[in-house]
Design a protein that fits this description.
metal-binding; mainly beta; Spt4_arch; Transcription elongation factor Spt4; 5 strands; 31% strand; transcription regulation; binds zinc ion; Spt4/RpoE2_Znf; 1 helix
């Protein structure tokens, strides 16, 4: 059996979908974070990413596709 890796519970911002590890979103400052999210999206270059445009993402970073 592989040793279990302890993973920090990450949350996603309900306002801008950013995945954050702290208690508040660093992008928009919102504290409306949800642990119930799905779809991990890493945006490197938002200007050339169709999905980033669809989600109105203008900053590179890690995002959740769906936040409930
Ligand atoms: Zn946010």
């Amino acid at each position: 059996m592989a040793p279990a890796r302890k993973k920090k519970q990450m949350k996603a911002c309900q306002s801008c979908h950013k995945v954050v590890e702290g208690e508040a979103c660093m992008t928009c400052g919102s504290t409306n974070l949800s642990e119930d999210w799905a779809g991990y999206l890493i945006v490197v270059d938002p200007r050339h990413s169709g999905i980033a445009k669809q989600m109105n993402i203008d900053m590179p970073g890690r995002y959740a596709l769906k936040v409930r």
